[in-house]
Amino acid sequence: MSLFANTVLVTGADSHGIGRAVALGLAKAGADVAVHWYRDRAKADDLAAQIAALGRRAVLVHADMGDAAAARAAVVQADEALGGLGILVCNAAHIQRKPFLEITDADWDAVHGVNLRGYFACAQTAAQRMVRRGGGGRIVMVSSINQAHASPDLAHYVASKGGVMMLARSMALELAPHGITVNCVAPGTIETDINRHMLADAEFRARKLAPVPLARAGTPEDVAGAVVYLAGKGAGYVTGSTITVDGGLTIA
Ligand code: NAD
């Protein structure tokens, strides 16, 4: 698959999750990758080594995406280190399970600060630079099936993902004249560091996967395939869209 550009920043790539698979998928497709990390430097270093082994360049950028100024600075650092970002993948997210009646203002801010304002800060900073350079760009936002479907004990997370979907659509509208496409990838149940501990419980796993027509949890690579497609030259006429990667969970 031929990518739209060969420079990318992937946020939230310091876990055994979707960000890592996306970074590797894009590197395999020919991209130099800025690997954003927050908590686990060792995992980010390991990913950078794997990208280098594929013959591509990897640079590390660090930021708490809940801090808008730090998020913007990370994008600038990645943009300068790679000589201009052609592709941005917003992926870093904070999840917390709490009944709606118990969510505090601080809980709300912590989730929205990373999941929605963090995506906004990264995407706006990257888009401003893409517009200035004039060569177009690709922005992919990893949202969730929760962008359009509620789940119990996740009201703040679900609301943040609904916000991501509408942020992507709004950006798609305004950035189209600049040749920048903006799309979402909405995963269903994907086995990653975010939920591995819960899916290890056989009863929880069976209950969670029972309604999935394809009868398995998704892998990070399943999601990466959709992101690589949206970052590819072949997706040039796709914008403001969502690719759902959920094994058919939300068909019915
Ligand atoms: P993960 O826990 O493996 O990855 C989350 C990433 O976000 C990590 O790299 C972590 O360091 C980063 N992060 C968390 N808080 C941060 C902060 N304050 N600042 C900077 N980075 C921070 O989980 P994942 O499943 O790979 O999640 C990736 C994306 O996929 C998220 O946007 C998540 O909402 C979405 N998603 C996942 C699933 C699933 O079932 N795994 C389902 C739907 C959507």
Describe the structure.
- By secondary structure, this protein is α/β, with parallel strands linked by helices.
- It has a single domain (7-251), classed as Rossmann fold (3-Layer(aba) Sandwich).
- It is 44% helix and 15% strand.
- The chain contains eight helices and seven strands.
- A seven-stranded parallel sheet has the order 3-2-1-4-5-6-7, sandwiched between helices.
- Helix 1 (18-28) links the parallel strand 1 and strand 2.
- The radius of gyration is 17 Å and the shape is globular.
- The chain starts with 6 loop residues before the first strand and ends in a 7-residue tail after the last strand.
- The model has no long low-confidence stretch (mean pLDDT 98).
- It binds nicotinamide-adenine-dinucleotide.
Helix and strand composition category: alpha/beta
Number of structural domains: 1
The major β-sheet equals: 7 strands, parallel
Lateral strand order in the biggest sheet:
3-2-1-4-5-6-7
The radius of gyration computed from the alpha-carbon positions, rounded to a whole number of angstroms, is 17 Å
Chain oligomer state: single chain
Percent helix, as a range, is 40-55%
Low-confidence stretches: none
- The CATH topology assignment is Rossmann fold
CATH homologous superfamily assignment: NAD(P)-binding Rossmann-like Domain
Number of strands: 7
Give the percentage of residues in beta strands.
5-15%
Mean pLDDT: 98
Helical run tally: 8
Q: What ligand molecules are bound, each kind once?
A: nicotinamide-adenine-dinucleotide
User: Which CATH architecture is right?
Assistant: 3-Layer(aba) Sandwich
